[in-house]
Amino acid sequence: MTQERSLALRAIACLTVAAALVLAAVIGCHTPTGTPEDANKPRADVVRIDGLKQFGSLERPAVVYLHEKHTQALAKKGKDCATCHLPDQKYMSTKFMRLKDASKQQSMDIYHNNCTACHRQTAAAGEKAGPVACNECHVDKTIPSSWTAIDMDKSLHYRHVKAQENKCEVCHHQADPATKKLVYVKGKEDDCRYCHLDRTVDNVISMRLASHEQCIDCHRKRLAQNQDAGPAFCGGCHDAGLQAKIQKLKDVPRLMRGQPDVAIVQAVKSDGQKVEPFTRLSVVPFNHIGHETYNSTCRACHHASMEACGKCHTLQGSKDGKFVNLQTAMHHGSAKASCLGCHDGFQAEKRCAGCHASMARKDPPELAGCVSCHMPKPVAATPQTEPKVMAAMLLEARKPVTATYADEDIPETVEIKSLSKQYQLVKLPHRKIVQALAKNLKDNKLAGAFHRDPGTICQGCHHNSPIAKKPPACASCHGQPFDGRNLFKPGLQAAYHLQCMECHKDMGIEKPVATNCTGCHQEKL
Q1: CB under 8 Å to 143, separation ≥6 — which residues?
Q2: Which residues form the domain of 425?
Q3: Angle of CA points 88, 92, 98, to nearest 5°
Q4: 194, 225, 247 — which closes off a domain?
Q5: Which DSSP string corresponds to 68-137?
Q6: Who's near 476: CB < 8 A, 6+ residues apart?
Q7: Tens of pLDDT along 287-342?
Q8: 29, pLDDT greater than 50
Q9: 27 lies in a domain?
Q10: Mean pLDDT of the chain
């Protein structure tokens, strides 16, 4: 029953790799979560025993099983996981009282004989026991679940590295096709999810099984030796409250995996014999070490392997990269693993959203916006210049823009009086607004890299005007009234309200709130 959730260790479905690995001391993670008697309280250990579906339709409702309720009962009798789970070669089996599924009848007999026998023995001893009748176990019911996914971030990974004294082979391995065994190859340590998927495929067990077998087994052995260890119960990994207590290191040493500090991102073409660089635009220098600090795991970018992006995402697209070519992989706006998609996510922050939320992305003539990433080779570079050296030269030459024009070049106030009929004219605190936007971006490295001019910040409002200290007034483009021949250009009143109100809403500005008319317009007497 490959897909079956066992009675003991399969309590947590789809465990993300290494997160169950919390080997270093985790405050409170050894305490089971939830109170067994409270049926309405969400729990992290709710398991549905429905693995017999692989043999056909279930004859009765699946059994709803509370894992930690049983582990608590066993612990009071001095028993542990070995009571229900058998050793399987290197690790403890995640199946209940068996190593494999021979038949439907065998699996049913194992559950029925062992579970009911334990319940009867417990009842005979005068203790509170579980049910023995069919209709008491097979009940169509729902118990609220508090199960929360957990991931192996850099902090957790470093704590494991330290606890294992830099012995990466304890966790990392790969299949050797020649010997058909798992081996460790130094420098080739990949994320577990690159091989262990959501389900078992071609004899490679699922991530859930791999995590429960290796991680929990390691935790149990360390606990037995009175060593600091991670959780061995469901709630320790998957209860949100206990997750919050896991120690987070503020400054995590850099994970050394042979990665470069800087690199050149460039497509290559090959005719099967010769490989050479190929690009229609200038090369892209990539600050790898700088990007590492913004992601909790390497999988944020290296989602399929730890190889360079162009290994899978080739010029034309390949099977390894799911036929997503390099250009699409880098520029896909809705994919978080894409450069453009990741950057767009930061634009949604309040300090940036005022300008970016209501502006459609567009590049000036001749794709000038592309030069923020695609930079021409430095004059000092030669055909023999190494890519890493060239990348360093280009990144050093890039001058971040984090400021705007001098105060004397920014009008202090702007009077909007063309629409003053019911209300008095609006005195827009223009300089104050520009200064506030500039202050928000002062320490923003992403904005510094992509705002190519001191006047870029002005484009948030003057979005269709050339960058200039004195851009045209809004009425230069937005007529009054609305021009029915141009449906995509609002009239002046709508343009003001859309721009100002949307900015206040997206940036969370409370004074005045976006819907407070008199916060901007004073009524005429």
Answers
A1: 39, 43, 46, 64, 66
A2: 404-525
A3: 60
A4: 247
A5: HHHHHHHHHTT--GGGT--EETTEE-SSSS-SS---HHHHHHHHHHHHHHHHHHHHHTTS-----SHHHH
A6: none
A7: 999 999 888 888 888 888 888 888 888 888 888 888 999 889 999 888 888 998 99
A8: no
A9: yes
A10: 84
In a domain, 190, yes or no: no
Classify 47 as helix, strand or coil.
strand
Q: Which tokens go with 334? A: 């809705």
Does 456 reside within a domain? Answer: yes
Residue 111: predicted pLDDT: 94
Q: Are 68 and 231 in contact (CB under 8 A)?
A: no
Residue linked to tokens 């206040």? 504
Q: Return the CATH number at 486.
A: 3.90.10.10
**Is 453 within 8 Å of 429 (Cβ atoms)?**
no
Instruction: Copy the structure tokens of residue 428.
Output: 């827009």
Residue from 520, 280, 278, 498 nearest 420 by CA: 520
Q: Do both 288 and 388 map to the same domain?
A: yes
pLDDT in tens, 395-447: 999 888 989 999 999 999 999 887 677 788 889 999 999 999 999 888 899 99
Q: Which of 373, 398, 423 is the last residue of a domain?
A: 398
Is omega for the bond preceding 472 within 30 degrees of 0, making it cis? no
3-state SS assignment for residue 48: strand
Partners of 275 in the β-ladder: 270
351 and 461 inside one domain: no
Asked if 144 and 9 sit in the same domain, the reply is: yes
Percent of the chain with pLDDT strictly greater than 70? 89
pLDDT band at 202 (very low <50, low <70, confident <90, very high): confident
Half-sphere exposure (Cβ direction) of 54: Cα atoms closer than 13 Å: 14
Q: Are residues 236 and 92 both part of a single domain? A: yes
Quote the pLDDT of residue 362.
61
Query: Distance between CA atoms of 457 and 467, rounded to whole angstroms?
Result: 9
Query: In terms of domains, do 361 and 418 share one?
Result: no
One domain for residues 317 and 223:
no
How far the first Cα of the chain sits from its last, in Å, is 80
Do both 26 and 54 map to the same domain? yes
Residue 195 resides in a domain: no
Residue 426 structure tokens: 């609006």
Paired tokens of 147 = 């199960």
Domain count, the chain: 3
Q: Are residues 327 and 358 in the same domain?
A: yes
CA–CA separation, 324 vs 319, rounded Å? 9
Say what the pLDDT of residue 466 is: 86
For the beta carbon of residue 413, count every other beta carbon within 10 angstroms. 11
Question: CA 6 to CA 47: how far, in whole Å?
Answer: 8
Distance, in Å, from the CA atom of 349 to the CA atom of 44, rounded to the nearest integer, reads 32
pLDDT band at 39; cut points 50, 70, 90: low
Query: What 8-state DSSP symbol labels residue 523?
Result: B
